Amino acid sequence: MVNSMTGFASAGGEHQGINWVWEIRSVNGRGLDVRTRLPEGFEVIEKHVKAATAQACARGTVNIGLRIKQGVEGGAPVLNLPNLDAVIEAVKTTEDRAVEKGLSLAVTRAADLLSVRGVIEMTVAQSDGDAELHKAIKGDFEQALADFLAARQAEGASLEAILTKQVDQIDDLTKQSAGLIEARRAKTEADFRANIQKIMDNADGVDEARITQELAVMAVKSDVMEELDRLRAHIDAARDLLKTRGPIGRKFDFLTQEFNREANTLCSKSNYTDLTQVGLELKTVIDQMREQVQNVE
Q: Where are the alpha helices (DSSP H) in 34-129?
């Protein structure tokens, strides 16, 4: 089963007049990076969130946010100083830039700064009922996480279908390459004989031993059976990976590099138009497959 590294889910709830919304979203990443943004006072929940996410996901940059909606009973607005500093710095830079350009801007009011999202946040008053509140919020996180994983699995199913089709295309092109070997051998031999005949027509004699030696060297240099055998092995490995449960993205990415190496060698050894064309088609499909693999967990 293939899982995607990208996904999104949200879930919200209410408890004794307190409303909240969870949002979980992820993008591609080399490893697992869980980033949380929770209001002050929810450190205990944050530890649970990070642990549960790390257990459920193997790769990707996962951003998790908890938003307490305004109008919370028993809550109070709190000034987020880091966010305010960032807004003030942005306003200052904008005003300085405007002066350089000869523009005059209206005076910035405190209300303008406080209206920027994230500058004022709502906190929940701590009380003896915190345990029940935390339990309710954690319950909705579990639902959001389940929906998030389902979204990654659904996208992963689409990726699996695409990758399976691409592996089949590589298999077909490999078989086409093998089918062209005999025709290429016949053409190579005919061309070689024609060249030898030209030499014989313009020379007193030709060293037969040297001809035999050159034929042997040519055969070794142009032999692509080893590359085709490795391509077949990589195809089997790719199909096995697609049947594997758990993270396969790193292994599949490495496998696409091996696919590409064999396709490059096939093209460099080809010396036959039809075989070169198939080799280029192989490289195209492999590049497309590698792009898809970047999304696989």
A: 43-56, 81-100, 110-114
Task: In whole angstroms, give the CA distance from residue 138 to residue 188.
Answer: 71
| Helix (H/G/I), strand (E/B), else coil: 69 | coil
Nearest to 58 by CA among 11, 2, 8: 2
- DSSP one-letter code for 294: T
C-alpha 266, offset from chain centre: 28
pLDDT single digits (tens) 11-68: 999 988 889 999 999 999 999 999 999 988 788 899 999 999 999 999 999 999 999 8
Q: Give CB contacts under 8 A, 24+ apart, made by 107-113.
A: 113/84, 113/87, 113/88
Name every residue whose Cβ is closer than 8 Å to that of residue 238 and which is 6 or more positions away in sequence.
163, 167, 170, 252, 255, 259
- Give the torsion sign (CA, 188, 194, 196, 198): negative
Backbone φ and ψ of 203, nearest 5°: -145, 160
* Cross-strand bridge partners of residue 14: 19
Half-sphere exposure of 45 (CA within 13 A, CB side): 24
- Report strand pairing: 75-79 vs 32-37: unpaired
Give CA–CA dist 241/237, Å, rounded: 6
- CA distance linking residue 57 with residue 42, whole number of Å: 22
